[in-house]
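Thread: sanity check for a docking pose with flavin-adenine dinucleotide

Original post by kr_44:
Hi all, I'm comparing my docking run against an independent structure prediction. Below are the sequence and the ligand SMILES. Could someone generate the full complex and paste the structure tokens? I mainly care about where the ligand ends up relative to the chain.
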Amino acid sequence: MGKGLSERPPTARRRVVVVGAGLAGLAAALQARLEGASVVVLEKTDEARSGGNTRLAGGTIAVPCGSGPWEKAAYVEDLVAKAGGRCNREVVEVLAANALDDLSWLGAHGARFDPATPIAPYRVNAAHIAPAQFVGMPAFLDALRSSFLSMDGAIAHETKAKQLILSGQGRICGVRAVDRDGVVDYLADSTVLATGGYAANRELLESFVDPNAGAMVLRGASWLTGDGLLMAREIGAGLTHMGGLASLHVAAVSPENPRYGIPDHAVPYCLSVNLEGRRFHDESRGYVANGKALLRQPAQRAALVFDEKIKQQPRVSKSLATFRRLGLPVIEADSLAELASRMNVPPARFLRTIEEFNAAVEDGRALSADPPKAALAYKVMTPRFYAFCPLIPGITSTFGGLMINSDAQVLEADGRILPGLYAAGEVTGGLFCDDYIGGSALANCMVMGRRAGARATGRSAGPDATVRSVPEQQGALEHVGLGSDVLLRQNRPG
Ligand SMILES: Cc1cc2nc3c(=O)[nH]c(=O)nc-3n(C[C@H](O)[C@H](O)[C@H](O)COP(=O)(O)OP(=O)(O)OC[C@H]3O[C@@H](n4cnc5c(N)ncnc54)[C@H](O)[C@@H]3O)c2cc1C
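Reply from moderator J.T.:
Ran it for you. Here is the predicted complex with flavin-adenine dinucleotide included:
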């Protein structure tokens, strides 16, 4: 540090400093500003790259199917079940209570959505940021940023938060940051951490997940290194859900474009087939379970197969449209044998796989297939035939993070509140475990970000309601057991 750089006076004290300008950070900043607080957002990148994984996201936001108590309770049950019951249920209830209102709130700040679609087989809807998957996020972030700036909010780009500042009374009273001119202290009554996940932090992946995890293909931004998590841990914050493969979101993606080449919507309707031409798991469990099952397959490569009829499913055609738009290969053939040879899998084995699966399909399930398919089972028999091929596993995001309560307050490992410190979004842990329903990460950022902003200004009003009623069990998901971790052997690009 050059002479004089550390001698800059601290900034004027503000009510709230927010670290990170992704969805969680901007939602917190907007809400805090709406409460009348003076707010500054610190963002370590320049404006063009700011927004971390939010900028790169597909744009699906998981919301309840309706505003009634049954729909909200069903949303809670399905999200909790998807985490194997190992999640902070109170936070899920806050999501259920607020997600639809908060979607309208984002709309009022310039966000544009396509009509919501159901996320089968769950009792959850997907709102989609317009105009298409992976297209609308920069404009979405621009809209939120403009709205915040128009209310005299401040954003300091290229300003990296390095350390939390503790007062003599043990309250967090701001952030020490570094910008082009050196160190500067941003003093504030409350601090909101919204620095995103740690998928790009090799040390954290290799220590907490698997010695080989640092070599996996990364789908997100390369500078999301868990800064907020590390800063908070330094002053005693507890971490949760960091262990093993259960702490990662893994998806099967095209090696040509791991970031955007993802057939996530299509997975539950199709057949996932490995290099030997065999199915290897229940595709109806969704695209994260599919991505993790792929880690255990030969060469960690697979294909996702469907026919002309399955192609008509809106969520399958949505994934197809994404691949077509990106110019990514989708194999097509008039016969299954031809498809097998183009996929480079043994045709005889592949044909037997399809034949056995088709014979097992009954009432939308294939329970006697090996492995069984519990839902969304359709015979693959109508030409033309298609395959997203090849697909490899890639890390999308991280599920572990800071312990928080349902008011977004950061907790020590023994449950004590760290006064003055809030966190929201992917920097927090405890909401997802092993798997999640697509779109619930952005739902978490939206709802808990807004809530952190309100609470940071001392407001208990605003987004407060929780959902407590339990839905009828019919249609609810069973809690699934967690698989053991496996060795991961992908290479990171670049
Ligand atoms: C390719 C891809 C597609 C995805 N699609 C979806 C989807 O469709 N639906 C869904 O629900 N989820 C999706 N996700 C996950 C979701 O995008 C993220 O979980 C979510 O955007 C995280 O938002 P956030 O605000 O917590 O963090 P981010 O959006 O990552 O923002 C964090 C910000 O903090 C800044 N920052 C970090 N450290 C510091 C520091 N020390 N000082 C200052 N600033 C700092 C970063 O530069 C960044 O701007 C996807 C993820 C990826 C990678």
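The chain has 13 helices and 19 strands. Hope that helps with the comparison, let us know if your pose agrees.
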